[in-house]
Design brief:
By secondary structure, the chain is α+β, with helices and mostly antiparallel strands. It folds into 2 domains: 244 residues, Orthogonal Bundle (GROEL, domain 1); 141 residues, GroEL (3-Layer(bba) Sandwich). Helix content is 46%, strand content 18%. It is built from 16 helices and 23 strands. Strands 11, 12, 13, 14, 15, 16 and 17 form a 7-stranded mixed sheet that branches. The longest helix has 25 residues. The C terminus is likely disordered.
Length: 543
Amino acid sequence: MGNYGGQPVLILPEGTLRSSGKDAQRQNITAAKAVGEAVKTTLGPKGMDKMLVNSIGDIIITNDGVTILEEMDIEHPSAKMMVEVAKTQNQEVGDGTTTSVIIAGELLKKAEELLDNEVHPTIITKGFSIAKTEAIKHLESISEPVSLKDIETLEKIAITSMSGKSVEMISPLLAKIVVESVSKVAENKNGKIFIDNENIKREKKSGASIEDTKLISGIVIDKEVVHPAMPKKVSNGKIALIDVALEVKETETDAEIRITSPNQMQAFIDQEQKMLKSMTDKIVKSGANVLICQKGIDDLAQHYLAKEGIYSIRRAKKSDMEALSKATSARIVTNLDDLSQKDLGSADNVEENKIGGESMTFIEGCKDPKSITILVRGSTDHYVDEIDRSIEDAIGAVSSAVSDGKIVYGAGSPECSVSVHLKKFSQKLTGREQLAVKAFADAMEIIPRSLAENAGLDPIDTLVKIRADHEAGKVNSGIGIIDGGTINAQEKGIVEPLKVKTQAIKSASDAAEMILRIDDVISASKSGPQPGMGMPPGGPPME
């Protein structure tokens, strides 16, 4: 609302809500802190789970940060920004989502204290930016190298990632599967290791023990053979991947065929059969004994393929076709005339198996596959989903460590080391930014504090001990979750990728800085009549 010559001037539409200055900052900070508090109890090996029930009654039980935040029905814009922190962390490194959100919430809590002391938001954001850069530098200085050859270390990373999840008891077995799968799909490009996690396909099936989870050196497709007379198992598979329908095509333009005698009808049917036979002959001629088709296969074509003993699947997903191409070295063919022996892929064994009451095709024994499958098993659907999320996090952690080539030791030791370092670093600054850097240092202690609280330990006593160790130069000193006190995280094998820690600090700091810069929130009115706005013109709607 403005004022011109004594007359009010309406700038914003009716129903718009606006808060500005300190009120806007307080509301934003409170909403963002609430998101951090929501996931804080899930952190660490002794973290608790959350049960999420959606509007139609579906249940998810998990302690995975990004899953919790994605499933929560969050409306406040600042709270949504915290969800973006978790999503970014998940996309970039696949793990550490809870850590990033907790740090962001604590940074805002410390910033609120500075705002109460009349420190300007611009000074705070500048100090946070300085602290973020220094924290990342310090983490890199205490990191250690790792490579694909360090199998034992990579398995420890996977186990650390899965600690606190419902799969913790069986994590050594899953860690071996995760590390082997990452090793298989890793590619060396110009001397740098590149890993695309999309090449590790996961198929979930309930009705068995978690111990039945296994790595398939190939691809599992949720499809069965199209004809009962086809073989259910093929050894030494020669696989053809085609993106063309084995059906008689309809004409591109509208056409009408006039048939005036039975002979013409028979000739028409014979011609259709001839076309389909010609198509299947091209597949037979290529030497293929397994056919995966992305489109449909006509009933008559199925009959011809069955007579030739060719294992055939139709309507395979595009993602499965691409995965099969990478696993078997087959080329996806879009024109049957181009299909030849050199386009075929190979696998030692192609077999239809019943898993969890459903028929699935296993394409195993591929030579040097660049796309593989982890068959995830568990007793119930909810349990399988949580196992799958744990494996996904572990894959993200291991692949991040290998891609980045650096690790740090966990149990809260990196965050405490950063905190101690930043407190010393802040003393070199002369401006008010010193207060913001010190606040950033204090905020980093939220991770060891949360780990201690979730384990039922006294957070103050624990923090005092771990702080003393780090000030004495014990860089790998972390929290002993089991018996309290401090431990050497390196000796206990608690290993985390450097990238998980640096990305968490970057994401959290950037989100906190962005929220602190906001001093005006203008919310547009929702469409449609609002409460108190009266009835629409024309009176009430007619029945």
